[in-house]
Amino acid sequence: MAGLQNNNQLKIKFTEGLLGLDNFKNYVLKEVPDNSFFKILQSEEEEEISFLLLSPQGVFPQYRVEVSPEIVKELEGDSIEDLSLYCVVTLADKWEDITANLIGPVLINEKKGLGKQVVLENTEYKTKHYVFPPQGKVECG
Amino acid sequence: MLVLERKIKESLMIGDDIKITILEVQGNSVKIGIEAPKNVLIYREEIFEAIKQENIAASGVKQDKLEKLLKKTGNKEE
């Protein structure tokens, strides 16, 4: 991920890792220059492991995640306001094929440097939601 | 795999704090009640697997794809 180094980096520990990649616990959360929609989550243990995270509010304004008090506590938050919500983005060759995972969002307590991927239950959300749906294509393209 | 036979409303224990109860059987679906400590994660296997696969597909952000995307978005928010 050369080219995106900057000083706005936070160390984030995922005690359980991310699902399927549970060997990697230590990440750095990086700002993307001039773009507040996205952040990069880079593994400290393995350079090849990095994720693009999306702050969902702008793209999915209806998106809501129920967070139990146990999760707030696990991430050492005093309340839900201490946690930031992100969705993991899967990039694609064509930008209209880019998707975000809404059923397995990532919660981060930036103050405490702790993160967790949660799995939503009883929800219609899936692992793939288009970030730029066809209507968006007309507007943006 | 351990195989046990249970009737409706019968339970089984996993350790001393996880209790699984068969609530209802209808055709080929079974309704299961699970009582477990809050820190025990319980997922439907297919959702768990789908998220795992998606994480693996999402890991390894390629610089060229990222730059293309960032060019498309920019800072519309502020």
Can you tell me about this structure?
The complex is a heterodimer of chains A (141) and B (78). Chain A is mostly beta strands and 141 residues long. Chain A has one domain (4-136): BH3618-like. Chain A has helices at residues 69-74, 134-140, and strands at 9-14, 26-32, 35-43, 50-54, 84-90, 99-109, 114-117, 129-130. Chain A has a 7-stranded mixed beta barrel with strand order 1-2-3-4-5-6-7. Chain B is an alpha+beta fold and 78 residues long. Chain B has 2 domains: 1-38, no CATH class; 43-73, no CATH class. Chain B contains 2 helices and 3 strands, in the order βββαα. Chain B has helices at residues 45-58, 63-73; strands at 11-14, 18-26, 29-35. Chain B has a 3-stranded antiparallel β-sheet with strand order 1-2-3, with no helix packed on it. Chain B starts with 10 loop residues before the first strand and ends in a 5-residue tail after the last helix. Classes of the chains: A mainly beta (141), B alpha+beta (78). At the A-B interface, strand 3, strand 4, strand 5 and strand 6 of A face helix 1 and helix 2 of B.
In short:
With 141 residues, chain A is mainly β.
Specify the CATH class of chain A: Mainly Beta
CATH topology title of chain A: BH3618-like
Low-confidence stretches of chain B: none
Strand content of chain B: 25-35%
If helices are DSSP runs of H or I spanning 4 or more residues, what is the number of helices of chain A? 2
Helicity of chain A, as a percent range = under 10%
Total helical elements of chain B: 2
Total individual domains of chain A:
1
Query: How many domains is the backbone of chain B divided into?
Result: 2
CATH architectural group of chain A: Roll
Provide the CATH superfamily of chain A: BH3618-like
The total strand number of chain A stands at: 8
Number of strands of chain B: 3
Q: How is the quaternary structure best described?
A: heterodimer
Mean model confidence by pLDDT of chain B: 89
Series of H and E elements of chain B: EEEHH
Rg over C-alpha atoms of chain A, rounded to the nearest angstrom: 15 Å
Tell me the helix content of chain B.
Answer: 25-40%
